[in-house]
Each structure stands twice: as structure tokens, then as C-alpha cells.
Amino acid sequence: MNFHHFILSSLIIAFHFIPCRAQEDTGFIPLFDGSNLDAWIVGEKGGFEIINGELVTGSHDQGDNLFTKAWYCNYVLRLEFLLSEVGNSGVLIRCDPRAAWETGAEVQLLAPWTPWRDDLHCTGSLYGHVAVTNRPDETTGKWHTMEIRCDRNTVAISVDDKLATLARTDTVSTMEGKLLCGAIGLQVNHASKAGQYAKFRNIYIRDLDLDPAYVSKGFYETDSVLRREAYDAALSLGAGMIEPLATIMTGEDPLAKSGSKQILFDIVARATAPRCEKKYKDDVAAALEKSAGIATSDFTRNYLEWLSGMINYR
To answer: Which residues make Cβ contacts (< 8 Å) with residue 72, sequence separation at least 6?
Structure first.
């Protein structure tokens, strides 16, 4: 067994004993709550409709796929799905809608009689890329829960609170070059038999990149692409990241310290831009003052005070 297989096996064992619903439930917002498709790009050909609070695709491969308007990098997606006898759909992750399968990956949703598929192409697999390690219940005509966790270069897929697939995408050759940020998509039903369908309800997402603690961990990644992703998320959070960045800057990791120093500067640069909103600027100024007052390092304190001076000068 090589090192990567050992690590992956260990992660599978760890995840297997943690029901996905036992995770913290705060921070989830609806992508579909049964009332509208405001969060989605609806194609001209249709393909999906809301019936009795459920999102239904029964178009026999004649409509358009649905994609979220927003792009997400790291997140936990939760939904419920139901397939008809030979229903065939999927959830696309981290994709560009203009070339969804080329840029992203599909989490398969497939009735097992369409015909029966192997573990690389069944429900819960990263279709054609990563096989399930724990094949889920594929009973049709029944609602199932699914959780997809995209955590930097790790993707974990659970069905009915049981881990089905765990992948380190950076070790999967067929996923080389795939996006780490992108839209979320729902594939239009494309069963080979007419009259079939897939249904969805209660689609919720927790954007991990809105959590300063999660974003902070990205500053310690050895992969420069993942660090850059964390830098962008930190810059978007603005004032909420100043105290965590000051903490990182006080630490010993040279890469993390360098990154935190730069992003602190970039946040202040944004706050002092001519068209910056006053509230954003005031929030950044207050966060700098607070962080400087509790800094345990003279170097960090002096840097924060210097940044505060830049804001006050403007």
C-alpha cells in the first residue's frame, strides 16, 4: 500500500463513523426551498419545473441543465433527491456552465436499472473519475439525502448519512486541471425511457469560505493554488479576517506569515480606494485598532498600527 492509499484509507475510516448530520448545522442557506429558482440560471429550453414545492426534471433529455448564479469553492451542499424507475440525473460541482463536464465533475444520481452500473458510474460516484467505496441504497421512488463536501482538494459524498465516496482530487489523474471553484449544477433528466424523472427538494449550502477560521487554515497549505484561493477568500471577508490574519502573522510559518501580511495590506488598500463604502472602511479601521491592541508581537502590532495610519491619513 503506497502513502496516498494509506492516507485515503485512514480518512475513509474516520469519515465512516461521523454521520454527516452530526456536523454543525449553522451557516446553511437555501439554494432551493420549494418556492422559486432565484439562485439559479434557468435555460431557455426549460427542463425543470417546480411542482408542489419539489424541483422536477422529466424532460427526457430535452431541456437545459440548471446552474447556480454564484460560484463556490469550498462548501457543504445538502439536498434530497428521488429517482423514478430509470431516472438519470446528477449534481455538477465546481464547474463552468459553458463547459460543465470538461471543467467540473458530476456526482452521479442514477437508478440502478438504467441498466445496472458499476461502482465508477453509480449513484454517489464522481462519475467516471472516482468509484464509490460504500455503495449507497439505490431504491427508486424513495427520497434520499445527499451531502457533498468540497474541502479544497478533498471531496466527500454521503448518501443517507453514510459516506459513499471520499476523493483526494489532486491524486486523480483524470481530474487534473479541473476547477477548484465554480457553479453547482443539476443535470436535466436524461433517462433512455420516456416518462421518467428526477426530483429534488431542500437544497442548502454552507459556504466554508465565509468562515474566517476555515479560510485561515488555507494560509498554511503547501499548494500555492490552495493558498491563493484562501487569499482571495480572506480579501473578500475584509474586516472579519483582520484579527485571524494578525494571529497568523504572529506565528512561525514563513509562508503563512508572508501571505497574511500581504492580504492585510490588500484589505487596507481596498478600504482606502476612492469608491470604497464608508462602512467597509470604518469596519476595517475598527478591526485594525482592536487587533493592534491585543497583538502579542511587537512586529505585528507595529504593522497593524502602520496600516491604521494609512486609513486615518486618507
So the answer is: 94, 150, 181, 182, 183, 184, 205, 207, 209
* Rounded CA separation 178/186 (Å): 18
- Please check whether residue 280 is in contact with residue 237, taking contact to mean a CB–CB distance below 8 angstroms: no
- pLDDT, tens digit (0-9, with 9 covering 90-100), for 51-61: 999 999 986 66
pTM beyond 0.85: the answer is yes
Q: With beta carbons less than 8 A apart as the criterion, state whether 113 and 148 touch.
A: no
| Residue ranges of the chain with per-residue pLDDT less than 70 | 1-25, 59-61, 313-314
Q: How many residues would you count in the chain?
A: 314
Domains with residue ranges and CATH for the chain: 3-207 (2.60.120.560), 211-313 (no CATH)
pLDDT at 112: 87
174: Cβ contacts below 8 Å, ≥ 6 apart: 128, 129
Angle at which helices 278-294 and 298-313 cross, to 10°: 150
Q: How many helices (H) and strands (E) does the chain have?
A: 8, 13
In whole angstroms, what is the distance from residue 101 CA to residue 96 CA? 8
Q: How far, in Å, CA of 273 to CA of 133, rounded?
A: 51
Residue whose C-alpha is closest to residue 189's, from 199, 181, 179: 199
Separation between Cα atoms, residue 287 and residue 239, nearest integer Å: 6
